[in-house]
Design goal:
By secondary structure, the chain is α+β, with helices and mostly antiparallel strands. It has helices at residues 3-23, 85-100, 118-128, 141-144, 177-191, and strands at residues 24-25, 28-31, 34-35, 41-43, 56-58, 64-66, 74-80, 106-113, 134-137, 157-161, 167-172. It has 5 helices and 11 strands; from the N terminus they run H-E-E-E-E-E-E-E-H-E-H-E-H-E-E-H.
Length: 192
């Protein structure tokens, strides 16, 4: 075997390994430009919870938005995009629970990601009847704030921040209304 042939073979094997790693496996893989979640739910004991990032920016219509405005409430943060099939599938569940918990000290907020034109997201929210605000996050900077606690590794990702401002739970992939409601109840009970 020549040295040049060996070098090409090693490079080809390396490239194949890299491509295989990028493709995902099992329930987690890439589909239509996003990395799907595995449906896992991570709950954090109150003593182990880390401070949530304060998310600041503009809503879909360009108005200032900050999670600091919801201090003292349980905050549900959903990373989403109207182009993402699981995001579209879970939208009715998120809206249902947001309405159900509006008078129970819970604030929902979306983080719109990888969407250049917020008009698409505005139209999507109107069609689905979603009234809670969403941040515009074209560059993906807001979800990076969760890297010190429970980072996002999929779209959609939903975080629950307790009333003391700490990350209490994370769901990777779409969530049902009953599961989300149960998680919110658990977080509120464990924080009281």
């Amino acid at each position: 075997m020549t040295h040049r042939f060996r070098a090409r073979t090693v490079a080809a094997i390396g490239a194949l390994a890299l491509l295989a790693a990028c493709g995902g496996s099992g329930n987690r893989g890439t589909t239509d430009g996003y990395v799907s979640g595995d449906g896992s739910i991570t709950r954090v004991d109150p003593a182990d919870r880390k401070d949530a990032p304060v998310l600041e920016g503009e809503d879909l219509e360009g108005k200032p938005l900050s999670t600091a405005d919801f201090a003292g409430k349980t905050i549900v943060v959903n990373l989403w995009g109207p182009w993402c099939p699981p995001c579209r599938a879970e939208a009715p569940a998120l809206d249902e629970v947001a309405e159900q918990y509006a008078d129970k000290g819970v604030q929902f907020v979306g983080v719109l990601t990888k969407t250049r034109d917020p008009a698409t997201a505005i139209a999507f929210n109107r069609r689905k009847g979603i009234t809670y605000p969403s941040f515009k996050d074209q560059g993906g900077q807001l979800d990076l704030g969760f890297n010190d606690s429970l980072p996002s590794i999929a779209i959609p990702t939903t975080w629950i921040i307790d009333s003391k401002g700490r990350v209490a739970a994370r769901i990777l992939d779409k969530v049902s209304a009953s599961t989300l409601a149960d998680l919110i109840d658990d977080v509120q009970k464990s924080t009281a």
